[in-house]
Design brief:
This protein is of the alpha+beta class. The chain is globular.
């Protein structure tokens, strides 16, 4: 009887060890550090609602955080009660690159256009797409914590063109 109990104990120990080893070998490797999104953090100052109300009309730009790697922006220009221009922007980190992806209704065959971050500092982000007709450069400058200037520029009709949009933070 003692031999049977001893044999069962040895088999049980061997079975537990082999199951543990088999189970451990199938576990996915543990990531040493969680994935971080340093590039998107460069644009944290975009977040919020920005406006410019002038005699020409009202410009609004609203930025929200979708997740750790993506911001969403909406921009509208309203004259009276008519929205004369609107665009949707996805600002996202793709690997180690920050991408500014713009969608404008009735433009570019309804396809978004990507601009890659080419230069950055604490208060400036520059996105470019040399293959796009106009604009091919989008620049954001933070003037103060509640004031920014967005600029689009490039070649249009064979001439260098630039448009600036100053905005104040309202939320």
């Amino acid at each position: 009887m003692k031999k049977t109990i001893y044999a069962l104990a040895v088999l049980a120990t061997l079975g537990i060890t082999s199951c543990k080893e088999a189970h451990d070998s199938k576990l996915p490797p543990v990531e040493a550090t969680p994935k971080t999104y340093a590039e998107i953090k460069k644009a944290d100052w975009f977040l919020g609602r920005w406006e410019n109300n002038s005699k020409e009309g009202n410009l609004s730009e609203i930025w929200t955080k979708e997740n750790d790697s993506t911001f969403h922006g909406e921009s509208y220009f309203v004259i009276g009660k008519d929205t004369v221009f609107g665009e949707s922007v996805k600002l996202w980190q793709k690997e180690n690159q920050l991408i500014y992806e713009v969608s404008v209704r009735n433009q570019n065959n309804e396809k978004p256009v990507e601009f890659a971050l080419t230069s950055s500092s604490d208060k400036q982000l520059i996105f470019e797409n040399p293959k796009h007709d106009y604009p091919n450069k989008i620049t954001y400058n933070q003037i103060t914590k509640d004031s920014i200037v967005a600029e689009i520029s490039g070649m249009k009709d064979g001439k260098t063109k630039s448009e600036q949009f100053a905005m104040k933070k309202v939320q």
